[in-house]
Structure formats: structure tokens, C-alpha cells
Amino acid sequence: MTAYPALRLRRTRAAPWSRRLHAETVLTAADLIWPLFIAEGQGAEEPIASLPGVSRWPVESIVARAKEARDVGIACIALFPNTPRELRTDDGREALNPDNLMCRAIRALKDAVPEVGVLTDVALDPYTAHGHDGLVDGAGYVMLRMPYEIKDLFREWLREHFPAKEKHVISLVRSLHGGKDYEAEWHKRQSGDGPYAWSIGRRFELACERLGLNKTRSRLTVAHFKHPVIERAQLDLFAA
User: Fold this and answer.
1) What is the pTM of this model?
2) Closest CA to 35 of 9, 50, 13, 57
3) Is 193 within 8 Å of 176 (Cβ atoms)?
4) What percent of the chain has pLDDT over 70?
5) Where do the structural domains in the chain lie, given as residue ranges?
């Protein structure tokens, strides 16, 4: 019997023209979005060490990149500004500046290459000193949780990277959950239970007091949740 690739049981893929005719997915440059990173400055690009082959560009260079996108058929670019650190504040006020880095880049792009779409994100993390995507007035924490297969993965990770600490860490984790790897009970699975869990919780409370967090935070309650009233289990498909 003839072997692959001479024999292909999917006959519609036997010839290039047939593959093109029956293709279910077609990917072109018009389906792509090019992410571009903006920085203050003039002329030179700024390579991003954590993203090999990717750079931050000043506004005038971003315009040149957008023209490249237009020429190859890319319909849209996404912008990510690197706001100077001296302009980042706890309240992200630079986001309100009509002449901030992002606004200047958008105006330059739409003036020079109006046919290319510009995708932006409603986010505050480029403007906040703490780097969070929002204003920080509250804080919370979740104790380490290891449901289902996560417990095996976590043990394997400990064994690989911290073999000398594996037994001690697992012992502390189990002390949070009544001697088990995980406790699914409501009000316990997020924060744990026992002396060690209390100690961590108290440290967190003191840190929030020192930083002025959670001053107006309301406690969550399920008192107002009600089961929906269902008159019948299933609608009658043949009702008049």
C-alpha cells in the first residue's frame, strides 16, 4: 500500500488548489493587531530586555511603524505607553492629562495614518505609582489553596526547586487546613484556620492599618441571596 505523503485519505487536501478551495480558516495580515510600546524621547528605539526583539518607540517612530502596518495590510495597532516614573502617582492623575504620552501618540497616528485603527485600553496601571490597574484603597489576601491536582503540581515544584524545605512548607500548609492539603469549607478555604492562619491574618490587618487601607471596606454577606422560585422544572415545548 502506498505510504504517506503519496497517499492522503483526505482527498480535498491532495492539491494546493483544492486545499485553498476547502480551507475553513484563512489568516491574512488584516486579521492581525500589532502591539506597539511608546516611550518619551526623540529618535532612538529602546529595546525591552524581557521581550527579545521588541522595543519601545518615541511618538514619531510610532507613526513610522503605523505606516509599515498600513503598507503590509495590518488593519489595527494596539498602544501601550511607558509613562515616565516621575509622572506616575497613587491616583493616576496623568491619565487625565490631554497631552500625556498616549494622547499625543493617538493624535499623531490619526493625523498621519487615519486608515489604520488604534486600539487602546481603559487602564490605569501605566499611570499609577504602585502599578495596579486602579486606585488602591483596599486590600485582601487569599491563603495558598491546593485543590485537586494542584497539590501534586505544587509538591513537584517544591521537590524540584526547594527540596530541603518541602516537608516544612507542606506541614505549614496542612496546618492551615486542619491537617489536610485543602479545606473546601466556606469561610475557611480562602483564609485558612488555626494559629498560623490567625498569625498571617493579623499581620495583614496591621499592615493595612499602617498603610491606611480598608478604612471603609464593608464585610461581605450572603444574607440577601435567595434561591430563585421556579414554578416548573422545564418549559412545555408543546404548550398552546
Assistant:
1) 0.60
2) 57
3) yes
4) 89
5) 29-119, 150-211
CA distance 213 to 218: 12
Averaged pLDDT of the chain: 86
Provide the residue type at 200 as one letter. Answer: I
The SS3 of residue 100 is coil
96-118 residue pLDDT tens = 999 999 999 999 999 999 999 99
Q: What 3-state class would DSSP assign to 164? A: helix
Q: What is the 3-state secondary structure (H, E, C) of 184-236?
A: CCCCCCCCCCCHHHHHHHHHHHHHHHHHCCCCCCCCCCCCCCCCCCCCCCCCC
Percent of the chain with pLDDT over 90: 50
**Contacts of residue 29, Cβ cutoff 8 Å, sequence gap at least 6:** 72, 73, 74, 75
